[in-house]
Structure formats: C-alpha cells, structure tokens
Design goal:
2 copies of one chain form a homodimer. With about 210 residues, chain A is α+β, with helices and mostly antiparallel strands. Chain A has helices at about 5-15, 15-25, 80-90, 160-170, 185-190, and strands at about 35, 40, 50-55, 70-75, 95-110, 110-130, 140-145, 155. The first copy, chain A, contains 5 helices and 8 strands.
C-alpha cells in the first residue's frame, strides 16, 4: 500500500458515506443519515464528522446545580441536510440534528477564566420527517440516548412525547422548531450557499437575532 | 437535472475537495487545506465543513471585560489531518486548525441560564509544517485574520511571533502544542479510529485530563 493509498483510505473512512453516494449515484434511501426501526431510532454514529452548527452552554453552576441540558451541548447537522439548508434555508425531509452533551471540565485556563469542555455526558437527536412523524408539530421528533448514570448510552430510543420538547421549541426556536438563533453556523449560512461555509466573503457575517 | 443529480451536486459542493482527492488519486499538494504564498497564509475558506473539535469559552464578563480570545472559540481541524489523528494520535505535516471567535449573544434562553452564541467575531489559524516553519517550536505557526473593528477579516496573514502564542501553547497544551485537553472530540478520538467519530461504542468516552 503506497503512502497516498493509505492517506486515501483514511479520507475514505471519513467521508465514506458521502463518497459512496457520489460514486453510486445517490440512491434515495442512502440520503438518510439514521435508521428508524420498530418505532425506535437506532443510535446514530459518526456524527462528529457531520457539520457542526453551534454550542449552547447551560452550566450547572448557573442553574442551581440542575441544568436541564448539562452543560455544553455541541450540535451537528447531517451533511446532506446542511447542503440543502445552505442552498434553500430550509430543513429537508429526513434532516437529523445531533446534540452531544459535554461536562464543564475546568473554569480556568491559560487563555483566561471561562468554561472549558470536559467529558462526553449524553446524546440527543431530532429528526424532521413527514413520512415518519406526520402528526408531530413541524414533523419533528425528539430522542434521547442519555442514561441516568451518564456512563453509557442507549442503543435505541423511542420518540419523546411532543409536549416535553415542543413547549420550548414551538414558541421560541427561530426557524422551523430549530434554535438557529443560537447556532451561528446555521444562521449565517441560511440560503447563502458557499458564503456560509466560512470566510468566503471579506465581511464577517452579522446575524439578525430574532427571539432575543 | 434529476432530483438525485441535484442532491448530488449539493453534496459535491460540501465534500468537493475530498471527493476530488478520492477521484484523482490524492496528489500530495492537494492534501494541504491552505495556501501559503509570499510568507503569508491566505485566509482559509470552507472550514465550517471541516471536523469540529471543541469550543472553549472565555467570556468578557469573566475576564474584566477584556478576554484575550473573546468569547466562544469554535475550533476545527482539516479532514485529512483528522483522519490521520484518529488513526495515529498525531498531528500530521500540513495539519491546520481554525479557531473562529463568536460573541456571547445571550445569557438566558428557554433551556436555562448560560452562554449562548451571537455573531462571528474573528478568525485565527495554526499550521504544523516542518517544511514551512522549520525553526518554530513543534513546527507550529500561528495566524490571525481578525481586524480591530471585528467587522471584516484580513485576506492574508503573516505568522505571529512565536513568543506571542507559545508562552501558553508550549507549557500547557496536552498534545504537541495543541490544547486537546479542552477539545473532547480530539481527546476522545486520539488513535482510536472509528470509535472516535461518535457513538460507535456503548460506553461514553471518559477522557483522561492532563494539565488540569
């Protein structure tokens, strides 16, 4: 195996799903980045290689020790839905966003005082699908794979009752039940094509901030 | 153009660089995700589609109004260097990491009190290259594209004097001058292959935290 061949294998691992879609001609079923079987979402994998959109932080020490979503939450969107979003400004049928919870590991570092990430702590997902969730508001369903001890993850999850999540998502989220106002990568790229991928223009994006 | 063809074009835009590498056989020059000319780094573009590794937060209100790196900093690594890192646990020749600064837009939301991202605010980069920076410690050079008014970005940047950055990076960074202790995606994936891409194993990664 040559050096280049080895490097290609590395990249093929990273972008395998997308590369195989490109090479295969893109079968419709392969456009979904999740598996929903028997009323349950199988825990998605590989999402740390999707497109990152933003990180809200609700630290326990600012929420009486009991943050609803402790503490950092790194949010990702699947690559095909990202491509659709930056082109159209809309979430496509079959869009999936992952929210990975991460503890606060430290509050002081060489760069100053603040909040610094610690350990992975939980995992949630939301999917927009008219086909799968015709009665859910906006066709979004919500899932959690987090367990009580935060040491393991569930292998699959049934949708949460809509009321649990939509009391916030329906009223306050800026775009189609999604909190794009806190996800600058989504807010900045909405319908803007390649300009939204970072640094394509001289002027920094200054987002309009609804719901503030 | 068929629906599938359109979808493919969207994905091709997203992963164009990598797909063309896969299809072309991966020329050595194409493995670099940056352009360094005349002693300056051209401002990288498209990095929001690279692999996100973590978000330190040093808010102004926790640093006497003058954080050194205001305020959120979303950090990305180029895809080829990510593939190398998860395989070997090392940063390859030609690795580039981008740090995008984002203001704090809000301190309260439906999910609780905390810190929520606002606008893009600045952009920095670091590159490891023995070829380009043979005399820099660890062969890392640092660049900033941020301007004083935070409204625009520089089109190119010369390396910062090593002493400006390395007084922190040399002493405190956990891996090869990089603060992997605050980047759980890097820390969790170090040499772990596909396990590091998210959710491939039942047990949540619990990172060892040096330099705490």
């Amino acid at each position: 195996m040559t050096k280049h061949r080895k490097a290609m294998v590395g990249r093929a691992g990273l972008f395998g799903a997308v590369a195989s879609l490109l090479l295969s001609g893109g079968a419709a079923s392969a456009e979904e980045f999740f598996k929903f079987e028997g009323g349950k979402l199988q825990r998605p994998t590989g999402y740390r290689e999707w497109v990152y959109v933003g990180t809200p932080l609700t630290p326990n020490d600012m929420n009486d020790g009991k943050a609803g979503f402790p503490e950092f939450h790194s949010v990702y969107i699947d690559p095909a839905s990202w491509a659709h979003w930056k082109k159209t400004g809309e979430f496509r049928e079959g869009a999936i966003l992952m929210k990975e919870m991460i503890t606060v590991g430290s509050k002081s570092a060489a760069s100053g005082d603040g909040y610094f990430m610690g350990d992975f702590h939980g995992l949630e997902a939301t999917i927009k699908s008219k086909k799968l969730f015709p009665k859910e508001p906006g066709n979004w369903a919500y899932f959690t794979f987090t367990t009580a001890d935060h040491q393991t993850l569930e292998k699959s999850a049934a949708p949460e009752p809509a009321s649990v999540c939509n009391s916030c998502h329906a009223k306050i989220a800026a775009d189609d039940w999604v909190f794009t106002q806190y996800y600058p990568v989504l807010g900045g790229a909405k319908g803007k094509g390649e300009e939204g991928t970072g640094g394509k223009q001289d002027k920094l994006e200054h987002l309009s901030m609804p719901a503030r």
